[in-house]
Amino acid sequence: MKKLVPGLLLYAGLVVIMAFFAAASDDAFILADKVSGASPLLVHFTVNSTAAIQSYSWDFDEDGNEDSTDAAPQFIFGDEGNYDVQLKAMTTDNRTITVTKAMVVASSMMVSVTATPATGIAPLVVQFTSVATGKDPWAFAWDFNGDGTADSTAQNPSTTFDAPGQYNVSVMVTDATGTRVVKTVPVVVALFESHINVSSYFPENVAKGENQITFIVNNNGDKILKDINAKIIGRGIQHLSSTLIASLKPGDQDSLTVKMNVLEAGKLEGAIKVLDSSFPVTFTVAQEVEYNKEELETRLTVLKQRLDEQDSIYYDKKSQGYLVSEVFESIKAAKKQLQDGQQQLLTGKFAEATVNLDLASSAVDDLTTDLNGAKKQEVTFMMWMKENAVAITAVIAAIGALSGILVKVGGHAKKAGAQAVKLTESVKNKITAKKNGEKKEEHHSEPVADEEKKEESGDLKG
């Protein structure tokens, strides 16, 4: 009997405690002007209690935090769902009364979500689409991996699931009134063993900026692999693009070219991902050359001066008959290199500017050597004729004019001579006739003849 007494006392105590709390819960209950409705749902609460209450502690959204200490509070339920509103009231006799009230909040907007495809082989690219009805604009927050962090705020995002497994992708949609709806869509990613292998890649030595890397890919499996591309990941490496192998038969080999942007110098380690496999890669990045802009500008000025000097020498020697015609094209090329270098300096492309200045410097050196060693051209008779063609033509024209004058003078002289001959013949004829007449008269009178001879002699003398 003595052993039963403690057990009976414990049982009796529990009964009393239960009766106390049961009675306490009956001391008060929650009144609400509505117990269901569409979000955002505004509800006014009051308490009906037979006990005197000195303080109130309300938890409307079941998060364990106190939302109000008013005797008759109000609360807006923005998210759809079922809620157990809880009140902890302290009576004047220091008793705690805990009561609840069930609330059902429906959404004022509708949201539908789809995933395409919802299943597939890793790596799986999935496109998500969401459609919402309600008051826009809407805000979207997608969680692809279930870590509680928003991975995208786009309405219709896409993502790649690299590892196999089942993912419950969720999206929270909030409209302009603050109403929120959460939807979940499952995505199942299966494991795929491609048996693909990267046997080599080149180059391993790269520079900062954009580079192209070629990877040799082998299909070591027994199935045809399709739509093969690659992606480089790693510190200091930004993947840009990859070529595509449409199909690769078992045992075959092909190449992929990947463009990447190298952001850091030194030794970079990363990985190349091809289908379901990853392969380590290491690149050595050359130290970036530092350029002094002021030194490059000074060098440009000096080269311009040297080229101008050689340009002047070229024209002087050309005018003096030196064989320098071929040098002209070299001068033009050097001027173009200096123009390009100046433009590159203005745009901050110091590496390219340095190359053009180096080329121009070498060209100016060659010009100096060529002009210093230039020789005069030997003048042949035909070259002399060609160079003096104008003068020769003028001389020939002058000679032609003089010949014409001489021909005219000769013609006039010939005519004058003929006339003189005719005149001489006429005088001779007259004298002969006169003599013949005198001989006939001598037979008649000698004295007369003597007189005529005297007269004729006087006439001739006269």
Could you explain how this protein is built, in words?
With 462 residues, the chain is of the alpha+beta class. The chain has five domains: 80 residues, Immunoglobulins (Immunoglobulin-like, Sandwich), CATH 2.60.40; 81 residues, Immunoglobulins (Immunoglobulin-like), CATH 2.60.40; 90 residues, Immunoglobulins (Immunoglobulin-like, Sandwich), CATH 2.60.40.10; 80 residues; 72 residues. It is 37% helix and 36% strand. The chain is built from seven helices and 24 strands. Strands 2-7-6-4 form a four-stranded mixed sheet, with helices on one face. Strands 9-14-13-11 form a four-stranded mixed sheet, with no helix packed on it. The chain has a four-stranded antiparallel sheet with strand order 15-17-22-20, with no helix packed on it.
Count every helix, treating DSSP H or I runs of 4 or more residues as helices.
7
- Alpha-carbon distance between the termini? 221 Å
What top-tier CATH class of the largest domain fits best?
Mainly Beta
Q: Level of helix content? A: 25-40%
Main sheet characteristics: 4 strands, mixed
Give the second-level CATH assignment, the architecture of the largest domain: Sandwich
**Overall pLDDT, averaged?**
83
Radius of gyration: 61 Å
Would you tell me which CATH topology of the largest domain applies?
Answer: Immunoglobulin-like
Which blocks of ≥5 consecutive residues have pLDDT under 50?
Answer: 1-25, 441-462
Query: What characteristic shape results from the CA principal axes?
Result: elongated
Please give the domain count: 5
Can you say what the CATH homologous superfamily of the largest domain is? Immunoglobulins
Number of strands: 24
Return the structural class. Answer: alpha+beta
Q: What percent strand?
A: 35-45%
Sequence of strands across the biggest β-sheet: 2-7-6-4
